[in-house]
Amino acid sequence: QALELGVPTMQPGEVSFFLAAFPYAYGRPGSREPDVPPEAPLLFEVTLLEVRDGPDPQPLPPAVRLRLGSQRRERGNFHFARSDFAAALRSYRLSLRALDGPTTAPPGPEEEEELREQRVKCLNNCAAAELKLGRPEEALAACEAALRISPDNGRALLRRGQLLAEQGRDAEAALVLKRALELDPANKV
């Protein structure tokens, strides 16, 4: 997170040193013991070589898209757990971009199913982050996008129903929540 916060403040050609307290580096657990022990501050030396507009998505094999999407979604989960919902949302959107990007070859049936599942997870996570940021319309749009991919996704149905109810759209909410309950009768929410 230190680099995500620091690099945008730099100019091309600039060399910067970022001293990151452990919450902005590898967190309380550290990483790659013994290289980065628990609660370790880190010093990063960064040279900004150039600034570009967002790169054109490069065609990638489906397995690489899945790996990148998963890594970015997990990074979003990391930010979400730390209540940095804006950073989480950025990571989830990057994950979706990786999952939806061009491929070097068509995915096989198993890869296509996994891509679909990853997209739905990311969209549900986007909805949760949007709610935390106080943007119910955007959260509802993310739920609806998830349901276009997976119409019987219980999490998206439940959240969509709750959002519709909050908007006073009670008849629609009742139908959606009834469907969520049919799919998961044990759900206590």
UniProtKB/TrEMBL annotation:
Residues 1-52 form the PPIase FKBP-type domain. GO terms for cellular component: cytosol; endomembrane system; membrane; mitochondrial envelope. It comes from the Eukaryota. TPR repeats lie at residues 154-187. PROSITE patterns: FKBP_PPIASE, TPR. GO terms for molecular function: peptidyl-prolyl cis-trans isomerase activity; protein folding chaperone. It catalyses: [protein]-peptidylproline (omega=180) = [protein]-peptidylproline (omega=0). Pfam families: FKBP_C (PF00254), TPR_16 (PF13432). Its EC number is 5.2.1.8. The keyword ATP-binding does not apply. GO terms for biological process: negative regulation of apoptotic process. Gene3D superfamilies: 3.10.50.40, Tetratricopeptide repeat domain. This is peptidylprolyl isomerase. Keywords: Isomerase, Repeat, Rotamase, TPR repeat.
